[in-house]
Amino acid sequence: MVQYLEKYKQNIAVDMRRRGFSYSEIESRLHIPKSTLSYWLKNLKLTPEQIKKLNDKRVEVAKANVLKKISKNLQMIEEIKNSSAQDIKKISKKELWLMGIILYWKNGNKSDLRKGVHFSSSDPHMIKLFLKWLREVGGVQDEEIKFEIFRKGNRTNKNNSPDKIIDYWMKAVGFSKGHSSHIYFQKAGKKKSKPGFIRIKVAQSSMLARQITGWIEGLKNINNIL
Questions:
Q1: Domain membership flag for residue 115
Q2: Are β-strands 145-152 and 196-202 bridged in parallel, bridged antiparallel, or unpaired?
Q3: Could you tell me the residue range of the domain that residue 46 belongs to?
Q4: So what's the pLDDT on residue 188?
Q5: Is residue 88 part of a domain?
Q6: What is the DSSP string of 73-119?
Q7: Based on C-alpha coordinates, what's the Rg of the chain?
Q8: Tens digit of pLDDT for each residue in 177-225?
Q9: pLDDT digits (tens, 9 = 90+) for 97-110
């Protein structure tokens, strides 16, 4: 009886192999060790079509495993991001003050202080953070703030409708269209870059610009000490 059952399983294994099943699939369905399958199937001759079917299946399985791994990694990255985001609670005014100085150090106007406070970025979140800094640390009123928008490409491009671009940026930063003073179209370079950016301009803010650069110098001095 046992011998008959074993022969029965062997015949099924041979049939499954001819139909393009992998060793792993046969092992999983029949609960037969791979060592036994290798012995049963070692002399089995497959047609070119059957071999192709097996190879195609291996490729599909490999692709599926890669996609599964990518999905798992993306999920893990998202979980880490969400967990890390929870670490940021309420920001103190001193922390906000320091964040704004560092932002300006990177993206602000430091060459001609007579022009006042200018801050540029292609990231709406960074723009909104600096706007928060201007209001809460710099004491700047919204009516003192204007925006200049810079866009890659020609004005004639269907994706470069001035009204749509202004609407996008003003909605992104939470201001009305009246705060947009101008939109500039720039020649697109060969290198891949951001499609554009926005610049904050604060009216009559040369003194604030000088104060910010002084704070930046203070940070540089601390850096030299360290």
A1: yes
A2: antiparallel
A3: 2-83
A4: 66
A5: no
A6: HHHHHHHHHHHHHTT--PPPHHHHHHHHHHHHHHHB--S-GGG--EE
A7: 32
A8: 889 878 888 776 655 556 689 999 999 999 999 999 999 988 888 766 4
A9: 999 999 999 888 77
